[in-house]
Structure formats: structure tokens, C-alpha cells
Please model this.
Amino acid sequence: MTDGELFFLILCLVYLADCVHWLSQSTIVFVKWIGSSWKHKTGLLYFGISDINFLFMNPLPPLGLMTCSYPFPISVSPDGAVPRDALMDSSHTGGESTSLRFEDIDSVLPRGKDALINGKRFCTCGTEQEATALSNLLRSLKSLKPGERESAIDSFWEKQFDYSAAKRRMDSANERVRNLKSMCVVLFFYLFVIAPVCCALFGVSNALLPVAVPLIPFAIIINRGFYVAHKALYPELSFERLTELVKNCMCSPALIRACDHVTKDILQGYHPVVAGHILLGDEEFRSFASQIVRKIRNPVFLDALDNTGLKIMEWHNQKLLGLISDYLRNIAGIESQLVLTPEHGDPDANSYCPRCLCQFVQAEGNCPDCAGVELILFDKPFNCG
Ligand SMILES: [Zn+2]
Model:
């Protein structure tokens, strides 16, 4: 391998590494891979040993766009809260869940993406800002009388389901990354087409300096565009902005992915149903919303809950189902029922799982993929016609 080929290979590997985003397993990702339509992705690739998966973004022009939505990591009611991740952990270990009544809470603090209650990790959020918002919510609920807590919870959800505010934010991000993305595409062609051709024609040692000099104006223009967009959309995240700028200055291929860091968390603080409504086409949004409703109606790991936790989760799920139903009817204009019996697709299938809709030969029992969710019998036999 010549020096030029080795140099180009390293450049490609560095760039491809920057196309990968590491995400928690519960994150819902919306991706615009090519063209103008967004798709949603969940459970991208689960390693089975940790709550981590990854998303590989489109490395070629037009580079695509991505944004994440983070399902609320706890159930909360006027009585207390239950963390979703602790619930799943306790089910794996056979232990009890850690539901907490507000009377038992002494302190609530955010630490990174975690919310700490009484000095112990209670749950992990999608972002540090969400951990701060969740900690503020729990602190304010703790300070209120029990009879005042429901209206405080309602105000919290009102912001999460504010379609107009979320849409304005997404539109603003799209507007701000438009020119930035064009510059990123130009840089892609410069780094991966023009630079290798120059190196091949004149030799790496002769071409390296003349090829490297134009990267300075590229870095200035893209970093400036990133800084302005990021500061306008995330004024409080000065440390993250600075970290990204330092990385961009030290590694030119990273500049090409600048837009990802502008749009990634643009809809944090809004419910996934709102994010899906803004980004997805009609049919995909109906299927996406149906999935979310099925998951809330058929929660997993119920055996791991104590009585307090069970009551908190039931109250939380009823509240959420009501809010989603109102949103779908009043904001998204969906009047018809979203959750229907699945089409009987296999003559041998006798039952289906109401959460994941997989079909089974057995007539009763639990779904093997959805811990604790009971199968439902098809009410009609398979119709081959
Ligand atoms: Zn299932």
C-alpha cells in the first residue's frame, strides 16, 4: 500500500467512525437517510450485555439528518415515582422494583444523565437537560401538597405535548442547518474526491500542504455555522458547543457531520408522539403512534412491581393514554381507532401478543418477547380466501 492509499484509508476510517452515533437502547431515532422523508428506528442493534446500541448515518451526500426522542424514563403519579430502567433491572435479577413515595424523598439531584434520589441513582435520562428537567419536576412535586400534585403533573405533560412549540423548534433547526449542510457536502467532495486525486497526480509529499491549506477556510466557515446554529437552539449548552468545536478543529472529517450535532437533540423535552407527528408521513405516523399506545396499554415486567409501584404505573399509563388520545384526535386529526386486532396471517396461529403483534400457535400463555404480557386468542379462525 502506498503512502497516499494509507492516508486515504485512515481519512475514510476516521470519517466513518464519525458517522456512528452511540445511543441508549430505549432511544427512538428519526432518520432522514436520503431525500425528504423521515423514518423512525427503535432497537437498532442490541448487544445484549448493555443498554447501548448504535446508529450508522448515511456517509454519502446528501449525508442525511437525524434527531432523537427519549421516552420518559419514569412513571409518575401524585403518590410517587417508579423508574423504568430499575424496573427492568429488578425483573432480570428477580428483585423488587424501587418505587418511591414523595414522603420518602429527601433529595433529588441531577448528575450527568442520571437523576439521583436520596443520593442513589433513580433513573437515567436521554440527555443531561432531561435529567435536570425530571429532577426539577420531582423536587417541585415533593414540595407540593398531595392534592396539588396532579395539576403540576398536567402542566409538565402540557409542555411535552406542545405541538406548536416543537414544530417551531424543528423548523428553526431545519432552516439553520440548510446552508451548513451544503458546506459539509462541499467539504466531503473536497476531502474524498479532490484531495485524493491531487495526491495521486502529484504525490502525497508534494500535494499535502497545498491540499491542507484550503481546509482552514472550510473549518472557519463550518465551525462558525455550527456555533451560530447551536447557540441559537441550545443557548445553555456552552460546554458541549466548545467540546464539539475543539473536536472539529482537530479532525477535519468530523466537520462533515456538524449538522448531526445541531439536530440530534432538537426535540428533547417533547413526547415521541409529537416528534413522530412532526417528522413522519401519515401512514408511518399511524403505525408509530399505534406501537406507542400498545406498549403503554401492555406494560412489561409487571411482576417486578410492588403494590405502590403498580398503582403509580397504572395512574401514569392512564394519564398518558388520555393525553395521547386527545393529541391524536385534536392535533393530529386521527379519529379512527389506532390499535386493532392484527390480520390473521398464518393458518397455524391461534393467538397474538397485544404488545408486539407477533402471532403464535399456542392458545394461551405469555409472549416470549414481552415479559409478562398475556397472549390473546384470535376471535375468528384463519380465512384462506
Ligand atoms: Zn410480544
About this structure: The first strand starts at residue 20 and ends at 24. The two ends are 62 Å apart (CA to CA).
